[in-house]
Structure formats: structure tokens, C-alpha cells
Design goal:
Layout lengths: L10 H15 L3 H14 L4 H16 L4 H10 L1 H10 L4 H14 L4 H13 L3 H14 L4 H13 L3 H14 L4 H10 L10 H5 L5 H21 L2 H17 L4 H13 L3 H13 L5 H21 L7 H26 L4 H13 L3 H11 L6 H14 L3 H14 L5 H16 L3 H14 L6 H9 L1
């Protein structure tokens, strides 16, 4: 779940954010925390809200600086720290929420920030992790561990130059630090074209000439990166990982590394086997089950590729594999929905599959549930509209598309698709003016989108 800016946040969450800001103005800190945390519960990737929460936490702490309060705050956080530590891997969003409770009374708690950062990386929120780790580095500028953690977070966010600066700073302090030297060397192979000059250009300090100058070097680094990640290297890493697991069979983290490497090597049977063993001993979660599901689907695709296209029954064999694949997908996701009934992301995947199979009466109630998920609200509304279109309920379809548009603040490809679909419905209803209103909105920002320009030209002719 990537971080979002304010323009991508639903209106109800933005309202909570504004209420929190108003409470801060009145120095009503507890109400501010309440509103900010409610907003973050709905949208954990709302980084601006988290930044505002942290500023409020610091402001409150600065007004309560007695030694007694600081000591009591630190002592009272121990049970919460233990709870967050248990949640980091399996329930990272819950761990983040627990850490925020700690930071409400102790905003510079290093352990809470470290745990929050780990959980944020597990939840695919690298900028959130960076926000906490930058705070830790500011308060602990000489701590090598803090610096290394921040560098890892920068890499996760593809901010390679910033990670490189940290490694270089550590190496300047200790020229014999071989670990950092190797990390710095390997990092250069991961730089991408977008950091080959675009960052400086955005700051107004670079030029397109700089970008072109670095292009050949960036391409060379990308080629080097491909070599580093070649199948031979993966197999070498796999051999080493398997040897380590033999030495310590109870090391679940090492078993996870082995499973990941088998997946990279496209040995799906063994990858599924190792993931399965982890789940059997309780070291898995819903995300691991999703990974196993994806690998099983890839295994079906692998079987199709292995078929002899010259065989007279090739088409029949392929059709049978595709049938088995579709049957597996729908049954597997249904099983996961039953196991994790409150996981709306899994439920959304299930609803999409039902829709593809034209099982509209089953798909509709599922989408009605998943529209309550912040990241799936708009897609769910659009999919409901597709169901109503397919079943001839045009007025319902229009209502759902209009609901989806209310959630879209800025203009992106998703909004263009919704406007175009709505325009098409109005056209079928012979409501030409209403249809043109939708097409004009698209035309003003992207005249090259589908056949919008032709529709607008025809209208004015």
C-alpha cells in the first residue's frame, strides 16, 4: 500500500485531518491525536497526516517536560513496546498504531520509532519508515545501527542517492568498515535512470543536458544490475541459503529466504513446499498465502509454456490447464475469504474473479463490502457499475460511477476511465449533453485519450 498525498485521500479522511489541525490550533492535543489517528486508521499511508500527528506529539511533550513525566512515560511504554514487537511481522499496521500510542506521550522514543519503521517497511510504506528513522538519526547521529536502518529504508523507497550518502558518511568515519564498503559498491548497481538527473532537475539545480550525460552510465549500471541478479547468482545464493538452513533447521527467517530464492529461480514446487512448511508451524500469514497462490498460478502458466505447440491436441491440453487454473483461483481465494473474513483486499480479489465468470449475483454483495476499504472503495464502485451495466440496470450504474467521481480529487487514468464509462452510458441513453460534459472534462487535460477528441469534434460540427 503506497503512501498517498492529500489529493488522493477520500473526503471523509481529509475531514478528520482538518479536524485534527483545528484541534492543534486550540492546543487541544488529545482531540488532535484522536482525529489524526482515526484518519490514519482508515489511510495508514497518509504521510502528511502522520507528520502532523508527530508535530502535535512533540508540541505536547515540550509543554510537559518534567523529569517525572519523562520517566513515567518511558516506564509505562514497556508493555506497549512488547506488544508492538509481537505485531511487527504478522500485523504491521496494528504495530504502527501501537507505536503511535507510545509516541503520543513519548514522541522521541527510539525503540518505538524503530519498531514503527520495521512495521512500515513490512506494510510497504517506506516513506513512513523513513520519517521515523530520520527522527532517530537526528537524536542519535553517531549510532551506526540507526544510520544503516535509515539507508535500508531509503533503498526501499528507491531514494538511492540518499542511501549512498549515508554509506559514504559511515565509510568516511571508518575506512575499514568492509560491510559498508560492499553495500556502497552494490548500491551503485541499483541506481535507475530517474535518479540520473531528474532529482536535480526538480530542484532547479540540474538540466536536461545533465540527464543525457548520465544516461549511458545509468544504462551500464542497469545492465550490471541484471548480471548481479542473473539466474546463476540466484542459484549460488540458494545453495548458500540451503546450507545455512541445514545448520539451523528451526530458523524460520532462513527458511523464508530459501523459499523466496526458489521462487526467484522459478522452481515453484520447492518454493511452495517451503512456504507451506512455514505456514504449518504458524510462521506464515495472509500475505504468504497470497504469495503461494500466485506461485501456483505461475506453475499453471509454466505448464502451458512446456506444452508442445506442434502436438495435434495442443489446444485441448492448453484449454484443460487453463480450466484447472481458473478453478483453482476461484476456490483458493474463496477459501482465503472464509479464513480471513475481515480482509477486504482478499474479498476484493474474490469479487473480481466472480465478475470475470459473470457470476453477478455473487460478486455484487462482495463489492458492496469492499467499498468500505479505503484503497478499494473507488475500484469497488466501478466494478459494481460494470455489474449493473451487464444486468441492464443503467440508472444504478450511473449512480455508482457518480459516487466514484466524488472520491476522485485530482485527475488520473482511473478518473478518465470513470468519466469515459459514464459518458458512454449517457450516449446509450441518448443523453448527448450529459455525455459531452464527461468527455469535455477528459478533453481539457488529455485530448489524446481514446477517441475523446473525435467525440468532441463531432459534437461541435
Amino acid at each position: 500500500m503506497p503512501e498517498k498525498n492529500t489529493s488522493e485521500i477520500p473526503r471523509d479522511v481529509r475531514d478528520l485531518f482538518e479536524k485534527g489541525n483545528a484541534a492543534v490550533q486550540k492546543e487541544n492535543w488529545d482531540y488532535a491525536f484522536l482525529f489524526y489517528l482515526q484518519a490514519l486508521q482508515k489511510e495508514p499511508g497518509y504521510l502528511e497526516c502522520r507528520q502532523a500527528l508527530r508535530a502535535a506529539q512533540v508540541s505536547k511533550a515540550n509543554r510537559s517536560t518534567s523529569f517525572f513525566k519523562k520517566v513515567m512515560g518511558a516506564a509505562g511504554s514497556s508493555p506497549a513496546i512488547a506488544k508492538a514487537n509481537m505485531l511487527v511481522s504478522k500485523k504491521p499496521l496494528d504495530a504502527i498504531a501501537t507505536c503511535e500510542d507510545i509516541l503520543n506521550s513519548d514522541p522521541n522514543n527510539t525503540t518505538a520509532h524503530n519498531l514503527l519503521a520495521q512495521a512500515a517497511l513490512n506494510a510497504d510504506l517506506p516513506k513512513t519508515a523513513i520519517f521515523s528513522l530520520e527522527n532517530n538519526r537526528k537524536n542519535n547521529p553517531t549510532d551506526r545501527g540507526v544510520a544503516m536502518a535509515l539507508a535500508n529504508a531509503y533503498i526501499a523507497a528507491k531514494a538511492f542517492s540518499k542511501a549512498e550518502n549515508i554509506y559514504q558518511d559511515l565509510l568516511n568515519k571508518d575506512r575499514n568498515d568492509t560491510e559498508v564498503a560492499n553495500l556502497l559498491k552494490n548500491l551503485s548497481a541499483n541506481k535507475t535512470l530517474q535518479e540520473g538527473g531528474y532529482e536535480a532537475l526538480a530542484d532547479g539545480k540540474g538540466s536536461y543536458r545533465d540527464i543525457l550525460k548520465n544516461k549511458e552510465e545509468a544504462i551500464a549500471l542497469e545492465q550490471e544490475n541484471k548480471q548481479v541478479r542473473s539466474i546463476e547468482q540466484t542459484l549460488k545464493l540458494l545453495d548458500e541459503a540451503v546450507d545455512k538452513l541445514r545448520e539451523d533447521p528451526s530458523n524460520f527467517m532462513q527458511a523464508k529466504i530459501v523459499a523466496d530464492l526458489y521462487a526467484q529461480a522459478k522452481d515453484y514446487d520447492k518454493a511452495i513446499k517451503y512456504y507451506g512448511m512455514l505456514m504449518e508451524v504458524g510462521a506464515g500469514d495472509a500475505n504468504m498465502e497470497r504469495i503461494v497462490n500466485e506461485l501456483k498460478v505461475k506453475r499453471f502458466d509454466q505448464q502451458v509454456i512446456a506444452l508442445d505447440k506442434e502436438s495435434p491436441d495442443y489446444a485441448q491440453q492448453r484449454a484443460e490447464i487453463e480450466r484447472q487454473k481458473a478453478e483453482f483461483q476461484i476456490e483458493d481465494v474463496k477459501r482465503r475469504v472464509e479464513k480471513y473474513p475481515n480482509d477486504l483486499l482478499i474479498r476484493y480479489d474474490y469479487a473480481v474473479m466472480l465478475l470475470k465468470l459473470a457470476r453477478y449475483n455473487e460478486a455484487l454483495p462482495e463489492f458492496q463490502k469492499t467499498r468500505n476499504h479505503g484503497n478499494r472503495r473507488v475500484p469497488s464502485l466501478v466494478q459494481m457499475a460494470r455489474i449493473f451495466i451487464a444486468t441492464g440496470k443503467t440508472d444504478f450504474a450511473i449512480a455508482r460511477l457518480q459516487d466514484a467521481l466524488k472520491e476522485k480529487v485530482g485527475m488520473d487514468e482511473e478518473k478518465k476511465d470513470i468519466l469515459y464509462m459514464l459518458g458512454g452510458l449517457y450516449e446509450k441513453m441518448s443523453k448527448r449533453e450529459e455525455a459531452m460534459e464527461q468527455y469535455k472534462v477528459i478533453y481539457e487535460v488529455d485530448a489524446g485519450y481514446k477517441d475523446v477528441a473525435q467525440k468532441v469534434d463531432d459534437y461541435y460540427k
